[in-house]
Each structure stands twice: as C-alpha cells, then as structure tokens.
Amino acid sequence: MTLLSIRDLVVEFPTPAGVVRAVDHVSLELGFGERLGVVGESGSGKSVLARTAMGLTRKGPARISGEVVIDGRSILGLSERGRRALWGREVAMVFQDPLSALHPITPIGAQIAEAVRRDPSVKKEQAAKRAVELLEIVGIPQAARRAKSRAHELSGGMRQRVAIAMAVAGRPKLLFADEPTTALDVTVQARILDLFDELCREFGIGIVMVSHDLGVVGRHTDHVAVMYAGRIAERGPVKAVFARPSMRYTSALMAAIPSHRAERQTLPKPIPGSPPNLLAPPPGCRFAPRCAFATDRCGTEQPTLTELSGGHEYACWHPGQEAVR
Ligand SMILES: Nc1ncnc2c1ncn2[C@@H]1O[C@H](COP(=O)(O)OP(=O)(O)OP(=O)(O)O)[C@@H](O)[C@H]1O
Ligand code: SF4
Ligand SMILES: [Mg+2]
Predict the structure, then answer these.
(1) Which residue minimizes the CA distance to atom 5 of ligand 2?
(2) Which ligand does the CA of 61 lie closest to?
(3) What are phi and psi of 14, to 5 degrees?
(4) Atom 3 of ligand 1 has which residue's CA nearest to it?
C-alpha cells in the first residue's frame, strides 16, 4: 500500500526579481516501512519538496499545485488546524539542526513526554515513562538520568538522537529527515543512520531522507530520487540507479564522489559549472549548460522520464554512465 504519494507537485515562490519554481512537476511514491533518499546539489529543491510534502510550506508566500496524499489523506487542501493535527501523529520531521526542534530550558524528557501526550489517551505518568523508553531506543545512555538534562548540556549527536526521539514520540507513519546528519562527525553520523534503519524495520516507519551525500543514500535507503533544478533527473530502486546511472547528471554526481574501493583507483571528478538560476532556467534539459553530452535537442526540448527497467526511470536524451567524454 502507498504511504506517500506526490503527484505532479509544483511549488513556486513569487519574488521581486521574478518567480522561483523550486519544485517542478515532481511525482514520487513511498510504501510503508520504505526509505526514500532525495539527493541533489544545493538549491535543487530537496528541502522545499520535503517541507511541502509534510504541509509546512505556506500558501500565500508560495504557489502550490499538484497533490500530496499521506496514507490516503490529501494534505495540501487541509486547513492550518488540520495540518497541525497531522504533525507528530502522522508525519514528523527531523531537521539538520536539532537545536531548532528543542526547547532550551525544558528538560528533554519533559519535551518528549509532551510529544507523546499528543495522543490524549496517554496519561502523564505513562508519557514520562515512554519518554525514557524512547531515549533508550535512540541509544541515549542512562536515559532516566539524561531525561532531566537540557538541550545545551548534550553533544550534537545526542541532541540529534533526542530530536529523533521527539519526532517518533507520536508514532508517525512517515518521517522526513532533512540532512539529519550533515552537522555530525562520521561515527556519530553512522550510528544515527543505523537508528533510522532500525526505526523502519521495527516500527514500519516510512522515511524520506534528504541528503547531498550519495554515499549515505546508497547505504541507507531503498529508493532514490535525484533532483536537479527542481525536477526529477532520475529515480528508482537505489541498487538499480547506482549500478546503472543513466541521466548524465546522476553519472556526473556519482563520478564526483571519492571512491574508497582500491580496485577503482579513479579520482573524483567535480561537476563543472554551477546549477542554473531558477529565476531564468535554461529551456530544454536544465543540465545542458554543464553536460558534456548535450546536443541541440537538449537545449530546446525537455527530456521526459523514461523507464529503463523495474521502476528505474531517467530523464535524458542521451543516457549513459560516463560523465565526461
Ligand atoms: N521562501 C522562499 N522564497 C524564495 N525562494 C525560495 C524560498 N525557499 C526556497 N527557495 C528557493 O528554492 C530553491 C530550492 O531551495 P531548497 O532549499 O529546496 O534547496 P535544497 O536542495 O534543499 O538545497 P540545500 O542542499 O542547500 O539545502 C532555491 O533556489 C531557493 O533559493
Ligand atoms: S538530456 Fe542532454 S543535456 Fe541533459 S543530461 Fe541528457 S545528454 Fe545531458
Ligand atoms: Mg535543503
């Protein structure tokens, strides 16, 4: 069954300089307990996509069209109150900066207990107990004692664990994680990512993980969507996309990450140029100005998503795995 269905989503921000189309006709699906990675360079629309999919983008400052359905419920048309009722209970988000999600003075146990009590049937004492259990689940040592700590008394990794405990306190079905480990050192990052995997396996939570790190997405997701300038460049099962990247931007992105494997002694190749200005994106394929394989057609005609096999789709007129001629 489908947990999250995004159909033909367009998000635009009118600005004094013109209209920024941050998300451009994006469609994606995710099943219960599945993990989807959304990757792409800075400014490709990853955060706007995730925030809009959980109902956080405000209409007015933004123009939104298309559809987002979470567990059978269409969310874009919901009132502010309707969306607030959804947050925590159905969907939750873990941000890059855990301090933004935590209150500076309230002890962390009390904050988590408050999140647990969004379910009105849970009594106060039960919620406090559950808060300590959640701290144990996310791997906080001496959880009962730590529950009395305040956010600033914890390390960055611990804070992110607490933010995750808060996010899952209301037992959401769907968790958005926007660069959840970018600010953390590598070992802490690995432990947090393992924790996400566990939450998926044990609680059947679906996870949308936004990351600029292809390596993280390769190891910790089932499906991947590569975004470029607001559009889906390629998507599909992560193994298939990694084995055979086809849109030239995906190939370039993969060639840009250092290989740690001794048998692949290739040096990372940075992608030349920079992503387009979304106020005036190039017509046709938006990657064309940076692509070594671009032809006249690429400069005028927008490539549509074409299926390669088993749900692996790419948008490219001249697909292939080499990033450089
Ligand atoms: N409120 C806003 N008003 C105007 N433009 C916006 C607004 N929010 C986002 N944008 C623009 O939308 C585009 C996509 O932004 P977004 O934050 O989704 O990128 P991202 O892929 O998450 O990048 P990063 O990796 O740096 O986090 C950017 O060009 C950004 O400047
Ligand atoms: S459509 Fe053309 S410009 Fe775009 S990635 Fe493919 S080859 Fe390159
Ligand atoms: Mg972002």
Answers:
(1) 248
(2) 1
(3) -70, 130
(4) 13
